[in-house]
Design goal:
Layout: H1 3-7, H2 9-15, H3 21-24, H4 40-57, E1 75-76, E2 84-89, H5 94-107, E3 110-113, E4 123-131, E5 138-145, H6 153-158, E6 167-173, E7 187-201, H7 207-212, H8 218-251, E8 254-255, H9 260-275, H10 283-290, H11 294-318, H12 324-337, H13 343-350, H14 352-371, E9 373-378, H15 400-406
Parallel strand pairs: 2-9
Antiparallel strand pairs: 1-8, 3-7, 4-5, 4-7, 6-7
Length: 427
């Protein structure tokens, strides 16, 4: 797991931030819940009450208190008019639409126990005892979906062809790609007791299915999916572009030092973003697990320091501010987009410090984008260094009823979580 994976999320927040909240209202969304399930007036009232409650629960804040008080002592701003940036455009293909629909079908499928031997695509529930060198054996009840290779291909092979009541003993030698630290480059002994084997009963995709969701036909439903995907990729395109603008602006900025309290705050935040993936607070574990050095970490800290100095100086020079109301709107929008119960829960997960800086950066990037020289470039999967994964698209394409329960970032994870203020490109 690389640091760049942890940091990519900021770009999405910039796109969906203070200025981006207005964009959300124009985006096309669709739901797997039929419209008649909830009265429109009840839905509107419920949404308003939830947003009001989430906003009211946030502790009072003066966002300007977070900015560096005398940024001119450390920063010389440059000329940021006409910054050149490439913005990717994305073609939404029929294959992408069908893949998205298939995911929704599987999400709405029901598990049905079977007496037949397990096969690819089946869900196997089991109790497992794992014994790795230099660690205590541990037992857990869990499951795997055969074919997804959660514990690697060999583990899936061992659990293929089994039935409820079967007991297995086997050993697997893992390399360093396995996500469980204790299993890396080790031979692990397993004792597995199979509890059940389930098949996923997926609804048939036809007009009747589309009608059950409130659409006239599969064609109507597919059109809604396509529009929602397009909106999500638009957000991704914008967030990538404004991140490039921030980096271009930083290149035109001169730094002559930094206040010590800012450095310490950035150091603590950067280290915490790594330590959440370890079992303790030993920074040496971070170097080993993530394959980075002390110098790499120092570079990341200084990158965050310079970024926040630039934000402070730019706001001072251009008389920019984020009001308490704007901050509350920002966090409330984040909570809504990522399925948090309320704004307080989102703020606790991402931390107030990180969210305040992200809110300020959102305002700045909107201004930079307005004056930038933007060249649209069709995206190609062969583009070096660009990897698009499902979680990078935000939650706009997740059905509304799913968003509230399943789309929430895991607290690493999302996962993921303490919000980072450096993004992939700044690493």
């Amino acid at each position: 797991m690389k640091r760049k994976t942890l940091c990519l999320f900021l770009g999405l927040l910039i796109a969906a931030g203070v200025a981006g909240c207005g964009q959300k209202e124009e985006e096309t969304e669709f739901s797997t819940a039929a419209p008649e399930d909830v009265a429109e007036e009840d839905l509107a009232s419920s949404d308003f009450e939830e947003e009001t409650e989430a906003a009211a629960e946030l502790a009072p804040i003066t966002p300007s208190d977070y900015l560096v008080s005398d940024p001119a002592d450390y920063v010389t701003l440059g000329d940021y008019d006409g910054l050149e940036v490439e913005q990717y455009t994305y073609e939404i293909t029929d294959e992408m639409v069908q893949d998205e629909i298939q995911q929704y079908l599987e999400m709405s499928g029901e598990e049905v126990e079977t007496d037949e031997a397990s096969a690819s695509g089946n869900i196997v529930y089991f109790t497992m005892t794992a014994s790795a060198p230099d660690s205590e054996p541990y037992e857990e009840s869990t499951y795997v979906t055969l074919g997804l290779e959660e514990y690697g291909p060999e583990f899936d092979e061992k659990l293929t062809g089994v039935s409820a009541g079967d007991s297995l003993e086997f050993s697997i030698s893992f390399d360093d790609s396995i996500w469980i630290e204790e299993w890396m480059d080790a031979t692990v002994d397993f004792e597995v007791s199979v509890e059940s084997v389930c098949v996923l009963d997926i609804p048939e995709y036809n007009d009747a299915y589309a009608e059950s969701l409130g659409y006239a036909s599969t064609e109507d439903y597919e059109s809604a999916v396509r529009e929602s995907l397009a909106a999500s990729y638009e957000d991704l395109s914008y967030s990538d572009a404004v991140e490039s603008l921030i980096l271009a602006a930083l290149d035109r900025t001169e730094f002559s030092g930094y206040p010590e309290d800012l450095y310490e705050a950035c150091k603590e935040e950067t280290q915490a973003s790594y330590l959440m993936f370890t079992e303790g607070d030993n920074i040496e574990d971070v170097y080993e697990i993530f394959g980075i050095t002390e110098e790499d970490l120092e570079e990341e800290i200084l990158s965050m320091v310079h970024r926040r100095l630039f934000v402070s100086a730019y706001c001072a020079e251009n008389d920019l501010s984020v009001s308490e109301e704007e901050y509350v709107d920002y966090v409330t929008a984040l909570a809504d987009a990522y399925g948090y119960e309320n704004a307080v829960a989102a703020e606790e997960d991402y931390t107030r410090d990180s969210l305040v800086w992200a809110a300020y950066e959102s305002k700045i990037t909107d201004l930079l984008f307005e004056s930038a020289s933007v060249t649209e470039v069709p995206y190609s999967e062969e583009e070096e260094g660009i990897v698009i994964e499902e979680e990078d698209l935000g939650e706009e394409i997740v059905p509304e009823e799913e968003t509230e329960t399943e789309a929430a970032p895991e607290s690493e994870t999302q996962e993921e979580t303490s919000l980072q203020t450096d993004t992939e490109a700044s690493e």
